[in-house]
Amino acid sequence: MVLNSFKENIIKNAIIVIIAASLWPVIANSINQIGLGQISDFLLIISMLLVTVCFANFAFTYEKSKLDSMAGKLLSHGATFTFILLIALLLESIVLAVKIIYPSFYAIIFGFVILLYIGIVLYDFWDFLRVK
Predict the structure, then answer these.
(1) CB 127: neighbour CB atoms within 10 A?
(2) Rounded CA separation 87/84 (Å)
């Protein structure tokens, strides 16, 4: 059962990456329409949302979930799917906004965001593996 749930977790995270990658052009187009004077406000809002969703993601734990029931498994994967997808999309928004404001920092910020996202996904798997 744990192996099946582990596979489900891999599939969940793969779907998140596919959705986030497919929405990159949509987010980029939307951010390009924001005026340069409004980008700071946009980044502030995105940062507040990112802190909130990160708090929710790290407050969740598979240990307190009932992964042996279908409902518990669906709720757990649904919650973490939502949190991690939101994190990915918000991080994309930050990277794209930085590309407009500070083009010379784009590669560095992109690298930082990739590392942060990898850490969040690894945390998701680590938390999942803590379940006994």
Answers:
(1) 19
(2) 5
